[in-house]
Amino acid sequence: MNSTQQVQHLVDFPHADGSQGYAFTLLELLAIPAFVLDARGRAIVWNRACERLTGASGYEVLGTMDAWRCFHRDARPTLADLVIQQRTHEVAALYDTHARPCDEPGHLSAEGWCDMPRAGRRRYLAVDVSPICDGSGRLKAVVETLRDMTAEKQAQIALEKLATRDGLTGLANRRCFDDTLHAEWQRAMRQQQPLSLLMVDVDNFKQYNDVYGHVGGDDCLQRIAGAVAKEMRTNDLVARYGGEEFAVILPNQSLKGAAIVAERIRCRVEQLQLPNLGAAQQFVTVSIGAATALAAPECDPSQLLATADAALYRAKHMGRNRISLTRETEKILSQAYGM
């Protein structure tokens, strides 16, 4: 007889002391954290594994209707509470991954982060609930079992980070940039907002590498990456586009605003005062091309990228250590924004 069946026996025959004691003993000895709420939401079982996971003893929880306090700082129902209160439609809003029905009717599974205030550590838990009904189908209790999947979740996050982050600078990588640019283009089109892009290239970087070696070059790129990142708003994205080139996506930013950000980046890099003995300039500098588009169905983000690239080429051609807009972009945006 499994644990759910034992609780069924406990609920159906509350006066059968021997069966009740056996059911409690079985649940107490389960290695899997588990607790049981009765039809009113009152905790009637809180096993030892659950005590170890939450840091809350059964003495504190049994007989109360606030088992949620063991998992969250702010009031919110457990998955078992949602079943008892017939609020399962709220599960998707309360858990990181949407709840999915199990094979048996009424059984639910969900995953999410829990504060675990008593244990003093945040945990990612997989939760399964099983309702227990009497012969007439009336709900008698709900069993909730828990699995600590924090290590697995952290490993998943680390892998996802590796897939989207540049290993040297910690910035977004080219893949993340491409995906974000496409997503921001679609959003700009829906919301009818401008989307700006900066292409940032380190001036005379080959000469820098020749003098300071690849280790020195890596350090240079890391410091420039940090300087660029410091000028970003929450919704902006800075990525290492490739080699010594960086790209900055500025959602809902006019060309004038993009030019201001670009100039701040240029000044911040210059203020690093990284010596560059292999170039005419005394210190490492960057050239920046800026472009802005009003997203439309007949266009695509590759055109914005091409325009920013052309502006960068112009900045290089004009002597480096400067920002530039293509003449075509300047003309179009001056009409659109009255610049």
TrEMBL record:
<feature type="domain" description="PAC">
    <location>
        <begin position="108"/>
        <end position="161"/>
    </location>
</feature>
<dbReference type="InterPro" id="IPR000160">
    <property type="entry name" value="GGDEF_dom"/>
</dbReference>
<feature type="domain" description="GGDEF">
    <location>
        <begin position="193"/>
        <end position="328"/>
    </location>
</feature>
<dbReference type="InterPro" id="IPR050469">
    <property type="entry name" value="Diguanylate_Cyclase"/>
</dbReference>
<dbReference type="GO" id="GO:0043709">
    <property type="term" value="P:cell adhesion involved in single-species biofilm formation"/>
</dbReference>
<feature type="domain" description="PAS">
    <location>
        <begin position="19"/>
        <end position="86"/>
    </location>
</feature>
<dbReference type="Pfam" id="PF00989">
    <property type="entry name" value="PAS"/>
</dbReference>
<protein>
    <recommendedName>
        <fullName>diguanylate cyclase</fullName>
        <ecNumber>2.7.7.65</ecNumber>
    </recommendedName>
</protein>
<dbReference type="InterPro" id="IPR043128">
    <property type="entry name" value="Rev_trsase/Diguanyl_cyclase"/>
</dbReference>
<dbReference type="InterPro" id="IPR000700">
    <property type="entry name" value="PAS-assoc_C"/>
</dbReference>
<dbReference type="InterPro" id="IPR029787">
    <property type="entry name" value="Nucleotide_cyclase"/>
</dbReference>
<dbReference type="GO" id="GO:0005886">
    <property type="term" value="C:plasma membrane"/>
</dbReference>
<dbReference type="InterPro" id="IPR000014">
    <property type="entry name" value="PAS"/>
</dbReference>
<dbReference type="Pfam" id="PF00990">
    <property type="entry name" value="GGDEF"/>
</dbReference>
<dbReference type="GO" id="GO:1902201">
    <property type="term" value="P:negative regulation of bacterial-type flagellum-dependent cell motility"/>
</dbReference>
<dbReference type="GO" id="GO:0006355">
    <property type="term" value="P:regulation of DNA-templated transcription"/>
</dbReference>
<dbReference type="InterPro" id="IPR035965">
    <property type="entry name" value="PAS-like_dom_sf"/>
</dbReference>
<dbReference type="InterPro" id="IPR013767">
    <property type="entry name" value="PAS_fold"/>
</dbReference>
<dbReference type="GO" id="GO:0052621">
    <property type="term" value="F:diguanylate cyclase activity"/>
</dbReference>
